[in-house]
Amino acid sequence: MLELIGVNEERCIGCNACIRVCPSPEANSVKVLEDGKVVTSINSEKCIACGECIKVCKAKARDYDDDIDKFFKDLKERKIIVIAHPSIKTAFPGTWQAVLKWIKQNGADSVFDGSYGADICTWGYVRAIEQGTAKNVVSQHCPAVARYMEIYHPEDTRSLSPVHSPVSCEAVYIRDFIKKNYAVAVLSPCPAMKLEFEASGHAEYNITFKRLKEYFRRKKVDFTKSVEGDQHYDFDDQVQGCMGGIFPTPGGLRYNLSINIPDIVAVSSDGAQTVYRELDEYCELSVDRRPQVFEALSCSGGCGCGCGIGNEGDQTAVEIKAIMREVEIDARNRRKTALNGVDKQFKIFDDRINPRSLMKTYEPDGKRAERPDEKALEEVFTKLGLVNEYDRKIDCGACGYNSCREMAEAVLDCRNVYENCIRCAKASMGTGAPVSVPAAAVSAPAAPAANEAAFELSDKISAFANNLLADIENIYASLYNIDSSNQKSASMSGIVVNILEKVVGFCSSVDSIDSDNLPMLVSTLEKLQAAVASLNVNVTECAAGSATIRESMQAVADAATELNITAHDMAAALADKY
Fold it and tell me: Which domains does the chain have, with CATH numbers?
């Protein structure tokens, strides 16, 4: 399997941010180096190359490889056709035409429009649906999604659409109709596209826009003086795509299908923190309950926000959406239909292309991982100091997983280490041993009524901290959208500040909590209040950059985690006392 994403262990700080956002639970493995440093490595067999870990790694310990160096070397020695992914207009706003002209002038045999391949892809879907060869399918033009299905739902890979991705459809069109059998290079927004090309053989080079920008900076190639007059460019074969240009946006395929099949039941989902959960849910549904088409994109905001775009700090999500809206308007103005409403472009495809040439079949090549042995898992729980159900629902998230059970399963599967549990780590440093609450003591039936209220309060606080951490995960997942919703974010964080002020005041006024634990709890809550207040200020002040907001978000996450552990330890101390 290709190793597309790599780890620089010297940079890795073991913060678990990569585990926290990774949709593939088996892709990350934690290990302890000889010097005692804890780092996270990647299992390329399970990595889907979605790039989420690269987006959140503050230490810059993760990065990806593409084929840009090989491409420019081979460009001098062989004929290479270049296909430009539709998202080039968001990667190089205002200069994308100049970029393509430069590539053509510097050795590319020809440059073709990936949007045209997306139009062919839509046509392929329509014909396959009409002919009954595409029933209740999941789109596969996002290679990370296709790879996830192959790994975690191999028995459902037949649900993946039989129609090739837009880029592959374009490659087939060039090969079969243009009759050019040269090597194909794709300018793309996504390192995962290399997975598709390796499987299909439709392209040899995946050149991401981010690496292309870096190349131009090294070579001092400046396109900033270029002025884009309109959305038109003279691609080779004089063919430019139409509505396929909006494929990079969430719901782009669904919109294209609805133009041609108005009553089609097509739904869309995007974003790693949402789409993979919904794919899991989709695969649990009986076939008769599944939509005709489920369009799934790994990147929140679509391909224009992929980790291979390289727009960090240059463009907001709002600007990207505005660009794609301009693309849509231009495409709609150029779209032509006959008097009977038939798309003229589709008529050309009917005359030129054999639909079967666009089809691919998926066959299961694996099976779901077996559930862990409960007896062995029990031993792991014991070594983690989680000996009862109360312990096992701490779910603080410091290890990167959503639950203590997921952490235990990872340790059992040798994907993680005991030292990565914050409670075990503190115990090893002498800052507090893992404290277990006896099952009978959790309910504390013999405790005074006042302390029963204290137990209830600690449970509520722990639940509050868990919910807050979940909210933080959602904010992390869509952080690049924060500029487009400043007022909403500011209002929401303001509400959280008010709630926390009430909680701090309430805890300070309650005399039924053990006096030894009260200062610790109030102190932790005050840290959380200060962290959220700082976030509120940074969000409200629009001048604050995303890095500042991320630091505030991390402070909130750390404080919320500490709050969770504090609430648990408070309950444990009460249980021991009574």
Answer: 5-64 (3.30.70.20), 68-358 (no CATH), 371-434 (no CATH), 437-578 (1.20.120)
